[in-house]
Amino acid sequence: MTPELGETIHFDFIISSSTGAAADADGTPTAAVYEDANDTAILSPTVTKRTSLTGNYRVPVACTTANGFEAGKSYNVIGSATVGGIAAKAVIGTFQVRKNYQQIARAMFGVKKVHYVRPSGAGALDGTDPDNAFALVSDACAVATAGEMIFFDGTIAQGTTQVSVPAGVILRGASEATAIITNTSTVGSRTAVTAGDNARLENFTIEGQAGAAVFALLLGYSTADATTKNVRVRNVTVRSDATTGGTDCFYFNSTGSDLGEWFIEDCTAIAAFDCHTILGTNNSQRIHYNRCKFRAVGPDDVTSTFQGVRAITATRGETYLTDCEVYAESGGDDVECRGVHARTAASNTSKIYLARCAITTRTQAGFSGNNYDLSVDSGSTLVAVDCTYDKSKLDATGTLTRVNTELTQIKTDTITADSIAASAITSSELADDAITAAKIAASAIGSSELADGAITATKLASDCITAAKIATGAVDADALATDAVTEIASAVGTATTGTGANVVTITVNDGSSALQNAIVRMTEGANTFFGTTNASGVVTFSLDNATYTISITKTGYSFTPTTQVVSGTTSATKSMTAITISPAADPATTNAYLTTYNENGAIESGVILSFRLLTPPGTAGQAHPGDVFTATSSGTSSNNLTVTLLRSATYQAWRGASTAPKKKVQFTTTDTSTFQLPEILGYDN
Fold it and tell me: What is the pLDDT of residues 291-327, one digit of tens each?
């Protein structure tokens, strides 16, 4: 028997008389549990007689850490009884405790449940732990629900079976180097991995298989009218070794419906043939790439169209790349080699915004086709801000805007009417087409705006002027003065109050009076939205239908997280509780307080925190100890730990009683009678 840590198991034993017949004991038998070679029992469980069964007794053993059980240790259960005046003992059970992988995973990742996958599977193939893992990632996807995680390691051979990550589920590999999904999908099936709303994909590699067939390695949807929103991809490598046909590493295609925003960070796309790395979004939404690498190297003996990045989008579709690297290398027989291509196809036009990207193209011997680092078709838009590329390799039949915020004149001075008149900006400085004579003459930047210094070096250096604004004359004093949010800035992606279909109004009070500046968080699956209440205690969100966990924080108040169902327009009032801490009696001290939690997020009593005084308040004539001292939490209510400290003094604190802690927090107390301690993360041993 190998129960999990935290599991309760039961043993039965039978008592017999001297004749061998079943008989009840003279009194209630006892039981004791011993660990390995330890001769002291760690547990004495209660023995219970089974109803109406002569001589039949049962013993429950709760294998919890609180009872002293440890994963990997072996245990013996010894029963003792007296029958007919004769005392006897016997071993009634032996077992070894194994790790509770679900409990560990919940503590590590903060999810409801983890489904495990390993090559060829194991045990019961139900995914409950590594010893009973699923054989395919797609098997785990079939049972996972929002708030859960699929974890895998090793090479998982999916064949042509698509991996469809459900909405709100995390697909996580052990690492990009060891967690690999292989795929043999053809160009007809188009998809290796897809993801539903609010899913997260992390730390793994998708690989194609070399051969004569056509292989496509794609992240996204390929079917018409498919939708997916707010997906985050991080540390994922997509690689293909196909020798014929075409590959699209990151592919988005939703011809009839909104795709929503995807955020792809620290990822890599590698293709050996026809790498349309970003094939685009036939929709009105945005795809963000941050710190990604795209590498396309074509074979020398096949004619193909080769691009490092290409986008095909509808009129409002936008693709953003920030701090990315793009490399495209043609084969000798290739007909095209393009780094970034804002493409127009039929009625679809595309918009690509680049910020601080490096674009490189290289052609092999024998190449005679088109070679461009930056290319934009008629009707499409490409904006490059602070990018590096070969300025001799440009193709712009559409709108190509290049901005260099490092121009000396822009960096160091305000552009005024006088400075223009004095030729402060020379033709060489305008060579990068950041601000051209034509744009100035057309009043894209008006003389009155220049005269009053509305355009300063700081404002230009902060990337506040986008291509669209320069091209259309939308750069004005008001827009710059208010530091308007630009298209390029939005590529970074920040937490907001949401973009969903329903208006959700949350009012926060203390039971009677409105609370201003309370931070309200709405969490559903992997997606979190937050906002701050106004003077009326109100914050408004835009959320889709779902059940959200709502948490509220404000200094001096506590709030127990609860759920909030959003179904259409929703309004709710939430009340916080004022924290009441008894003030320190000594005016030179303060009562410091916080709440201690266990690994599952529940308030925990008996937690030890250690403190050391580093810098006293600086009062002459006093001497203070620098020794470590401790305080212990008590009870399961908020602010269950209070410790008296000096006012205006600097301390170190850590969780646990260790004199050599792994993590320390340094803070300075305020000159008040009470003080809320900072957040402390640490270990209890």
Answer: 988 887 776 554 444 444 443 333 456 788 999 998 8
CA angle 536, 540, 543 (to 5 degrees): 160
**pTM for the full predicted model:** 0.50
Q: What's the rounded mean pLDDT across residues 627-632?
A: 93
Pairing type for strands 163-165 and 114-117 reads: unpaired
| Angle at the Cα of 274 from the Cα atoms of 272 and 279, rounded to 5 degrees | 120
Which CATH number is 502-578 given?
2.60.40.10
> How far is residue 540's CA from residue 571's CA, in Å, rounded to a whole number?
9
pLDDT for 185 = 63
- HEC letters along 461-518: HCCCCCHHHHHHCCCCHHHHHCCCCCHHHHCCCCCCCCCCCEEEEEEEECCCCECCCC
Pick the residue with more confidence: 282 or 548? 548
Question: Positive or negative, the Cα torsion across 388, 390, 395, 401?
Answer: positive
Element (H, E) at 447: helix 447-451
What CATH class does 8-96 carry? mainly beta
Parts of the chain belonging to CATH 2.60.40.10: 502-578
Q: What is the pLDDT of residue 285?
A: 62
Q: What is the CATH code of the structural domain delimited by 589-676?
A: 2.60.40
Measured between alpha carbons, how far is 177 from 155 in angstroms, rounded to an integer? 10
**Cα–Cα dist 108/600, whole Å:** 9
Nearest to 205 by CA among 236, 183, 174: 236
3-class secondary structure for 46-111?
Answer: CCEECCCCCCEEEEEEECCHHHCCCCCCEEEEEEEEEECCEEEEEEEEEEECECCHHHHHHHHHCC
Tell me how far apart the alpha carbons of residues 599 and 604 are, in angstroms, rounded to a whole number: 9
Least confident of 63-72, 111-120, 278-287, 565-574: 278-287
3-state secondary structure string across 169-182: CEEEECCCCCEEEE
Strands 200-208 and 179-183, bridge-based pairing: parallel
The Cα–Cα gap between 626 and 594 comes to: 22
646 forms beta bridges with 589
Q: Could you tell me the CA-to-CA distances from 27 to 84, 447, 565, 592 in Å, in that order?
A: 10, 103, 56, 54
Judge whether 126 and 139 are in contact, CB under 8 Å.
no
SS3 159: coil
Lowest mean pLDDT of 394-408, 502-516, 636-650, name the range. Answer: 394-408
Q: pLDDT band for position 101 (50/70/90)?
A: confident
Q: Looking at this protein, which amino acid is placed at residue 511?
A: G
Sequence-separated (6 or more) residues with CB below 8 Å from residue 588 = 617, 619, 646, 647
Biggest alpha carbon distance in the chain? 120
Residues of the chain with pLDDT > 90: what percent? 39
Q: For the chain, give me the number of helices (H) and strands (E)?
A: 10, 45
Which residues have a Cβ under 8 Å from the Cβ of 685 and sit 6 or more positions away?
656, 658
* Structure confidence at residue 415 as a pLDDT band (50, 70, 90): very low
Q: Is the pLDDT of residue 249 over 80?
A: no
Which of 167, 102, 107 is CA-nearest to residue 141?
Answer: 167
